[in-house]
Write a structure and sequence with these properties.
about 80 residues; mainly alpha; 4 helices; elongated
Length: about 80
């Protein structure tokens, strides 16, 4: 079921939205719906406390690592073509 949402805008802001919608070949309403969907997707979802607990537990783990200079040298070595003498 669709519901109506009323939003009060300044005239210039509404004019900008109408111009943007016209450039995108859509109605102002559709442009606003898509902008709202995009904004919702950018919002964090889920329980913040749970996410922080997962990160904390991950930092307690002991994963293999190496000196950063050594790792970067090995990465670059893998990118270079083999040169035969």
């Amino acid at each position: 079921m669709s519901k109506r949402l009323q939003v009060i805008l300044e005239e210039e802001e509404l004019a900008e939205i109408r111009r943007a919608a016209r450039r995108s070949h859509m109605t102002s309403s559709e442009w606003v719906r898509q902008a709202l969907r995009k904004a919702r997707r950018g919002e964090p979802s889920g329980d913040l406390k749970k996410k922080l607990e997962i990160v904390r537990r991950g930092t307690e783990q002991a994963f293999p690592t190496a000196d950063i200079d050594q790792m970067l040298a090995e990465i670059e070595k893998g990118r270079l073509p083999d040169v035969m003498p």
